[in-house]
Structure to design on (428 residues):
């Protein structure tokens, strides 16, 4: 029997990722660093797209406190023990002599959560029973540990140590570091005249300086984002918290004047960046509106929040919210935080958020007497006294997630110290 040919008509749906859609997704989910790199690539391929530097006077938010305080180390309560654990491992690798190890222990005890040294060389020498020259020699070795800038005694020294580690500590950079007040005021011309160089050289040094970290110890906070250009800025205002874009994190964009190839593509890319900034600001404001308690009191006051609820509130798809917060950071009075870290489910049906519980555990361990560290059972009891009922296995799980060792491994030698707020000792 001969075969018969038949024509069937069917319909199918398929998502076709055009180049424009791919570019839109890439711009949407990029953080400030990634977006800047992408824009530089596009400008290299399209001469019609012009990139300009961000305003020099728009100083990074994380520098506000250290510049206003005149170089006084900020004392932030509740930092976790990760910095101490990091230094214990690095200093053990130095194989110091017993007398040097005692000096190093005193210097570690004098560190502020920012990573700066909060005690003088003379005070350490008196406590360790050593000469100031011996303390200075050990301090010089500790200042070469990673990350660069630890054990600095001032903001200028912190930046100088990092510039030397990066290989950018030339005469212009050192001159800029020596006049941070003028840098904060955007007076690059005055610095250039004093150094006898072109203002463009000073502006380039300032641009490199902005990539350094004035508080290298803060990156060891379990909830902090790596120090870099934050995408958003959250600051208290007269009518509440004000959330804005960090304009200094991205280059300025423009289209080359006249007519020529690539101008349409350049304008389209600029519109994509503007749409990304608008969406980021809208989502960021909604997230931080719900987490105002975190802006005022830190991560321990985080409330449960899901991406689905935020997406519904701003009228976006949940996948869009997920992309926009994936690598986004926000600068707050409590440091630079990942926006993604502000999303957390509840522990139990009506319990606190999991992230808030981890923050409370980190704060409790940071305040404990290292001669008598808190066991998991003791942490459960302490949380119960604050109205948070959790199981011991839950505390053990979150303690492990924070990188906090068990109580017997946190115990330090020496006599017990009084005061719950004393800084923990590190067994070197």
């Amino acid at each position: 029997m001969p075969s018969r040919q038949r024509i069937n008509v069917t319909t199918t749906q398929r998502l076709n990722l055009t180049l424009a859609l791919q570019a839109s997704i890439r711009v949407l989910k990029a953080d400030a660093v990634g977006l800047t790199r992408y824009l530089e690539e596009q400008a290299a391929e399209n001469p019609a797209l012009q990139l300009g530097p961000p305003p020099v006077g728009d100083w990074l938010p994380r520098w506000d406190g250290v510049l206003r305080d005149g170089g006084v180390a900020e004392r932030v309560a509740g930092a976790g023990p990760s910095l101490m654990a990091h230094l214990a491992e690095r200093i053990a690798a130095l194989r110091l002599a017993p007398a040097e190890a005692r000096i190093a222990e005193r210097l570690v005890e004098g560190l502020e959560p920012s990573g700066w040294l909060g005690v003088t060389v003379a005070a350490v020498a008196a406590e360790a029973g050593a000469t100031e020259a011996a303390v200075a020699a050990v301090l010089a070795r500790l200042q070469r540990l990673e990350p660069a800038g630890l054990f600095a005694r001032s903001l200028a020294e912190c930046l100088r140590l990092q510039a030397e580690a990066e290989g950018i500590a030339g005469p212009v950079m050192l001159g800029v570091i020596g006049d941070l007040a003028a840098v904060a005021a955007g007076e690059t011309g005055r610095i250039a005249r004093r150094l006898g160089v072109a203002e463009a050289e000073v502006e380039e040094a300032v641009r490199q300086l902005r990539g350094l970290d004035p508080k290298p110890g803060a990156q060891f906070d379990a909830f902090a984002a790596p120090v870099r250009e934050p995408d958003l800025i959250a600051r208290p205002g007269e009518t509440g918290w004000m959330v804005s874009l960090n304009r200094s994190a991205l280059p300025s964009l423009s289209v080359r004047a006249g007519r020529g190839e690539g101008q349409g593509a350049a304008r389209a890319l600029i519109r994509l960046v503007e749409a990304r900034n608008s969406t980021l600001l809208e989502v960021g404001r909604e997230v931080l509106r719900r987490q105002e308690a975190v802006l005022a009191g830190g991560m321990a006051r985080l409330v449960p929040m899901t991406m689905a609820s935020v997406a519904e509130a701003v009228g976006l798809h949940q996948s869009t919210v997920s992309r926009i917060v994936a690598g986004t950071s926000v600068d707050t009075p409590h440091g630079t935080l990942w926006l993604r870290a502000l999303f957390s489910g509840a522990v139990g049906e009506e319990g606190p958020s999991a992230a808030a519980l981890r923050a409370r555990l980190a704060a409790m361990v940071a305040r404990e007497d290292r001669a008598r560290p808190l066991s998991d059972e003791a942490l459960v009891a302490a949380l119960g006294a604050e109205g948070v009922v959790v199981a011991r296995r839950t505390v053990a799980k979150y303690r492990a997630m924070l990188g906090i060792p068990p109580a017997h491994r946190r115990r330090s030698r020496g006599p017990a110290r009084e005061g719950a707020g004393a800084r923990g000792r590190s067994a070197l």
About this structure: The chain has 20 helices and six strands. The two ends are 91 Å apart (CA to CA). The first helix runs from residue 19 to 29. The chain has three domains: 18-59+229-249+261-345, 61-219, 368-410.
